[in-house]
Amino acid sequence: MIKHHIIGICVLVAGVLFASEITNNGYLSVNYDFAGRVVYLDGDSIGVTPIKNYPIKPAEYSVSLFSSDTIEDKYWRLSSGSIGSRLSGLWDLTKVGVATQRIEIKSNQVSEINFSLKKINQAPNKIKFGAVCCFGTGFTVAFLLGVLVANLAR
Question: Among 54, 75, 121, 127, fewest CB within 10 Å belongs to which?
């Protein structure tokens, strides 16, 4: 009789622990302008967009539309090769940055990430514009200093 009560209590405790494990999960939803894009959670593929209510333990994660292999390849192109290859790798890495987001998953809550193809494709243009402005400003300052020095030398 006591054995049955102990077994019953053990089953009850196991059921409570199992149920609390289920309810402690959070959920991740990932949207993208176009369906069918592979989504990576901390480097591991978890499915294709759209992903709705993917159960996951509460923690902070990195969600990306680029695989770790792709990122490593782009970084390798940036760190070696011709200047054209390096610039191409830099532009591609800006896309990776926009297509990768950190998210905190909370217990019993749905956390949602939205990726935009337009924003991803615009990322290199913003960096290029900043570089042109920087070089242009530097050239302008150097030119004005040259004019000033030339006039002072007269």
Answer: 121
Is residue 147, in this structure, part of any structural domain at all? no
Please identify which residue in the block is written with the tokens 């913003």: 126
Q: Is 90 exposed, middle or buried (0-12, 13-18, 19+ CB in 10 A)?
A: middle
- Report yes or no on 40 lying in a domain: yes
Q: Please state, for a pLDDT cut of 90, what percent of the chain lies above it.
A: 34
How far, in whole angstroms, is CA 107 from its chain's centroid?
21
Residue 75 in contact with residue 81, Cβ under 8 Å?
no
Pairing mode of beta strands 38-41, 26-32 = unpaired
Contact 130, 90 (CB under 8 A): no
Residue 96: Cβ within 10 Å count: 17
In a domain, 82, yes or no: yes
pTM for this prediction: 0.60
Structural domain containing residue 55? 24-131
Query: Does 11 score more than 70 pLDDT?
Result: no
Q: Name which of 65, 64, 61, 66 is nearest 103 in CA terms.
A: 61
| 3-class DSSP state of 48 | strand
Confidence of residue 128 (pLDDT cuts 50, 70, 90): very low
